[in-house]
Design a protein that fits this description.
- By secondary structure, this protein is an all-alpha fold.
- The protein has one domain (about 5-105).
- The protein contains 6 helices and no strands.
- The protein has helices at about 5-10, 15-20, 30-45, 50-70, 75-85, 100-105.
- The longest helix is centred in the middle third of the chain and has 17 residues, at about 50-70.
- It is elongated.
- The N and C termini lie far apart (about 45 Å).
- Belongs to the CARF family.
- This is XRN2-binding (XTBD) domain-containing protein.
- InterPro entries: XTBD (IPR021859).
Length: about 110
């Protein structure tokens, strides 16, 4: 689902789009929200209504990893990356671990 596909989906599914908009956190920038909204819309059909909280949690894990560099278990990251496959985040921050920084400094 590309950005255009998301817009088309929103135009054709107003009720769902309005529901999804209620999931936006007040702290989320437009860039952050648009990516997380796409994650939610792509995967919403795989979750029953009473399990949407699980989808929202997974969307936050993915967004926190992409935008803030938060780390989680390998299995969880693999799952959310698979769920987010094809979502393009332009100018996403690049994070380095402490070990990567130390290694690069030792090579000087």
């Amino acid at each position: 689902m590309s950005a255009l596909d998301v817009q088309d989906f929103i135009q054709q599914n107003r009720a769902t789009a309005q529901q999804v908009e209620t999931f936006r956190g007040y702290w989320e920038s437009d860039k952050h929200w648009e990516a997380r909204r796409e994650f939610i819309l792509r995967n919403m059909s795989d979750f029953e209504t009473d399990r949407l909280d699980h989808l929202l949690s997974l969307s936050m894990v993915w967004a926190n990893n992409v935008f803030m560099g938060c780390r989680y278990s390998a299995a969880l990251l693999e799952k959310v990356k698979e769920m987010a496959e094809g979502i393009v985040v332009e100018d996403a921050p690049v994070f380095k671990t402490r070990d990567e920084i130390i290694k690069s400094q030792q090579g000087r």
